[in-house]
Each structure stands twice: as structure tokens, then as C-alpha cells.
Design goal:
Blueprint: H1 7-15, E1 51-52, H2 61-68, E2 70-71, H3 79-89, H4 115-138, H5 155-167, H6 177-192, H7 194-223, H8 238-253, H9 258-266, H10 268-279
Antiparallel strand pairs: 1-2
The structure holds protoporphyrin IX containing FE.
Family: Belongs to the heme oxygenase family.
Biased composition (Low complexity): 34-65
Main location: plastid
Length: 284
């Protein structure tokens, strides 16, 4: 069993300016009134909208401003809920009901996948999971060690699946540009930008457990005679495994400043772009 760095120790490290990789760029997510949060809302509470914290009666302007600060969507439940909120909005309407983007191509049900394309997707996905799992093993930042042996790891299961395809007579391709690009980005971030790295960590594992599973089922029905790959099987109860990781992510993010949290949320778009490029290999 790998050791888990106690959160109390790791928090002190994250709070140490030496470990603050760089001053986060505060872009659109810095302000809860930004486009991700549905613009200015005067309502006291609404699903997914900003929540106005009770108005300060008088007192100093700074204190009043703080009291009036809008809560970020999901903030009350913990940082994972904030990440989820941003991610769900980046889905297209046909991908998920909370999605807000226009569809760019046919919905999954109308996909025309090929075994060769699916193999390219699996190979590139394996490179990404190998990289993620290597990063948390190495733990350049002590917090990463929290995410060893979560039960969500996919590297070994993908190795088994590729072995199965080989036994079926398929040639296993080398990783292609989308996988290599994503893996390089992860290595780069993991060493200098832990908040952005954690954003990718969350999105990759949680996307696979949600939309990824749905895609795997559809593709298996279409081209694999419903064969259920190891990639889509977990040892133990998946919802419990996910909850364990949510709890750890929430704890790690508790030591982040608001700017660091926003910086992490801002990386979500990049995660969608890079994962989307790998997903599209299924149709190549
Ligand atoms: C064809 C592509 C995709 C489809 C069909 C899809 C579909 C879905 C669906 C149905 C859910 C569950 C929504 C719910 O809880 O009600 C979901 C959740 C989610 N998706 Fe996607 N998705 C896709 C791509 C992506 C990508 C590219 C990412 C980011 C890399 C992503 C990240 C997430 C995350 C973080 C969640 C939340 C999971 C959770 O709360 O446990 N998805 N997706």
C-alpha cells in the first residue's frame, strides 16, 4: 500500500508561497457574475445561479463587500461541486441535460465508430492514464500522493483490453498526437501548476465514470458485439470510490485561495478540448 500524505502536512506545503507555482491568471471565472455563472442575478437563490449572501447593514465598506460577495455555484457543497458545475456547462445540450454548448457533431447514438478508431482512442487514453497515475505515484507536490490507489485507476484495465484486442488479431497502434499532447500537458502542469493539474485529474476520472461509460456501452453495442471492456469495470462500488475521491479533492482545495480555485476552474475548458480530441479518435 502506498502511503497517504496526511492532509495537515500537505496543507502547509500548499500554503507555502514556495509551492505556489505562479500567480494564477484571473480571467472570467474570477467573478461569479461571469458568463459561467449566468451573469448578474439578483435572486437570493436559484439552481446553479449565484447566491447572494445576506446584505451587511452598515459597518466598514470592506466588511460589507465581503458579506455581499456572491457564493460561487456549488461553493457551499465543496470545491468538487464547483468543478462539476463548470464542467456540466461545457457539455453540449445533447451530451448532458445541464449542457449549454451547441452540438458540433452527431450525438453518440448516431456515431459511426470503427474498431481501428476505437483502438486509437483506447491507446491514447491509456497514455493519459499511465501519465496521470505516474504523476501521483511520483508526487512532485505532496498533495498528489493523496490520489494514489483511489480505485479509479484505469491504466491496468486498459492494458488488459489492449491485450484482448491483440488476441483477436488486431494490431495495436502507437499513441497518436491527441494522446501525446494531453500527456505532455499533464506532465508540464503537474510540476508547476498543481491547481490546474488537479482540474484535469478530476475531469478525466469523473468524465470517464459518467459520459465515458455511456459511450463505451454504445460503442460496444455497435462494433464489439456488446463485449464489456475492463476499462468500464471497477473493483468495488463505483459511487463509493468516486465519493472517496471527491472528499479528498475537497480537502485539498480547502487550503487554496479563491484565486487558486478560480485558476483551477479556468482549466476546465482545456480539459474538455484535450479530452474531446481523444474522444474524436473513435470516429477516425
Ligand atoms: C460525448 C462526450 C460526452 C458525453 C456524452 C458526456 C455525458 C455526460 C453525462 C450524461 C454526465 C452525467 C450528468 C449527470 O450527472 O446528470 C456527464 C458528467 C460529467 N462529464 Fe461528461 N460527457 C462527455 C464529455 C465530457 C468531457 C470531454 C469531459 C471533460 C474532460 C466531461 C466531464 C464530465 C464531468 C466532470 C462530469 C460530472 C461527473 C460527476 O458528477 O460525477 N464530459 N457527462
Amino acid at each position: 500500500m502506498a502511503s497517504i500524505t496526511p492532509i495537515s502536512q500537505s496543507q502547509t506545503l500548499f500554503n507555502n508561497p514556495q509551492f505556489r507555482a505562479r500567480k494564477p491568471q484571473t480571467m472570467f471565472l474570477t467573478n461569479p457574475n461571469s458568463k459561467f455563472f449566468g451573469g448578474k442575478s439578483s435572486s437570493s437563490s436559484s439552481a446553479g445561479g449565484a447566491v447572494r449572501v445576506k446584505k451587511a447593514a452598515t459597518a466598514e465598506p470592506a466588511a460589507a463587500a465581503e458579506k455581499q460577495r456572491r457564493r460561487y455555484p456549488g461553493e457551499a457543497k465543496g470545491f468538487v461541486e464547483e468543478m462539476r458545475f463548470v464542467a456540466m456547462k461545457l457539455h453540449t445540450r445533447d451530451q448532458a441535460k445541464e449542457g449549454e454548448k451547441e452540438s458540433e457533431g452527431p450525438p453518440v447514438a448516431k456515431w459511426n465508430p470503427t474498431v481501428d478508431g476505437y483502438l486509437r482512442f483506447l491507446v491514447d487514453s491509456k497514455l493519459v492514464y499511465d501519465t496521470l497515475e505516474g504523476i501521483v505515484e511520483k508526487a512532485a507536490f505532496p498533495e498528489y500522493a493523496e490520489f494514489r490507489n483511489t480505485g479509479l485507476e484505469r491504466s491496468e484495465s486498459l492494458a488488459k483490453d489492449l491485450e484482448w484486442f491483440k488476441e483477436q488479431g488486431h494490431a495495436i497502434p502507437e499513441p497518436s498526437s491527441p494522446g501525446v499532447t494531453y500527456a505532455n500537458h499533464l506532465v508540464d502542469l503537474s510540476e508547476k501548476d498543481p491547481q490546474a493539474f488537479i482540474c484535469h485529474f478530476y475531469n478525466i476520472y469523473f468524465a470517464h465514470s459518467a459520459g465515458g461509460r455511456m459511450i463505451g456501452k454504445k460503442v460496444a453495442e455497435m462494433i464489439l458485439d456488446k463485449k464489456e471492456l475492463e476499462f468500464y469495470k471497477w473493483n468495488g462500488d463505483l459511487s463509493q470510490l468516486l465519493q472517496g475521491v471527491r472528499d479528498k479533492l475537497n480537502r485539498v482545495a480547502e487550503s487554496w485561495t479563491r484565486e487558486e480555485k478560480n485558476h483551477c476552474l479556468e482549466e476546465t475548458e482545456k480539459s474538455f478540448k484535450l479530452s474531446g480530441d481523444i474522444l474524436r479518435l473513435i470516429l477516425s
